[in-house]
Amino acid sequence: MSLPRAPRLLAALLLAVSALGVQAAGAEPEAPAWSEEPPAIARLLESGYRAELKRQPGVAAAEYCAAARDGSVEGQYRLGRLYLMGQGVARDNQVALTLLSIAAQRGHEKAASLVGGLGVGERLPDCLLTGAAPVVAADVNEVVPHEVVERFVKALPTDKRRHAMLVQKLAPRFKVDPRLALAIVRTESNFDAAARSPKNALGLMQLIPDTAERFGVRDALDPEQNVRGGLAYLRWLLSQFKGDVALAAAAYNAGEGNVLRYKGVPPFAETQEYVRRILTFYRAPRHAETLKG
User: Fold this and answer.
1) Which domains can be identified in the chain, with CATH numbers?
2) Can you give the residue ranges of the Transglycosylase SLT domain (predicted)?
3) Which of 5, 36, 40, 229 sits at a 20 to 30 Å CA gap from 145?
4) Does residue 188 carry a catalytic annotation?
5) Residues β-bridged to residue 196
6) Of 188, 213, 256, 273, which one is the catalytic site residue?
7) Residue-wise pLDDT tens digits, 52-107
């Protein structure tokens, strides 16, 4: 005879709790992915992650709840996980199932693996039902954390990871923050050393022939030469625009002449989207100076 729904739900969730308990005892929580989440939400997720590392689950729950209130699938998953384990909040299987099933329905694979075919719960946590999401001050502009970027790099396919590590190694030699350099390469070529654009921009940092010649690159399809040339150009742009990431990124995409002509980010749709992506990945409007390694 099959179990009624409530005992079956409880049994399944207890198995999930057990699995999470083993995970929590044996490993630290994973850093959030380096994604295109709005910076304010990304900072909430990262703050919650750091609180978990410091064994402050109550703080983590508050940060994840704020992210979930703003519609973050990752925030819903992480908050549901805390309710499932009873960390930072009182254990509540119905609330956990509600949050996890919503995240699963929105495509979160880890949430889906926890809830399986159990359906949707019927209760949201109070933190999602009352009060507004915390307002992030406009002048809080911290660069994306190193651990978030490291997790992203480690998850890349082997050849792309090798190229990303090359960028990380060389960037400090040009006094470029590796996180900004990676954001540029991610946006330009997605770490494909053989990338070629319709405008004949080549390689990891998509150097056009004039830029390659300007910075002494003989073979733009050679990964190391390409990265060195691209970093030299990026360093020059950062100096030219006094560390303003948006202007340096705009100049990298559209040329410094256009930035000077328009006295800011040019009104080109491609360039404006390019700058948006770079700022979303890097998070800060000012470049963090990096000493030569």
Assistant:
1) 5-129 (no CATH), 146-282 (1.10.530.10)
2) 166-273
3) 229
4) yes
5) 202
6) 188
7) 888 788 888 889 999 998 889 999 999 999 888 887 777 888 888 889 988 998 99
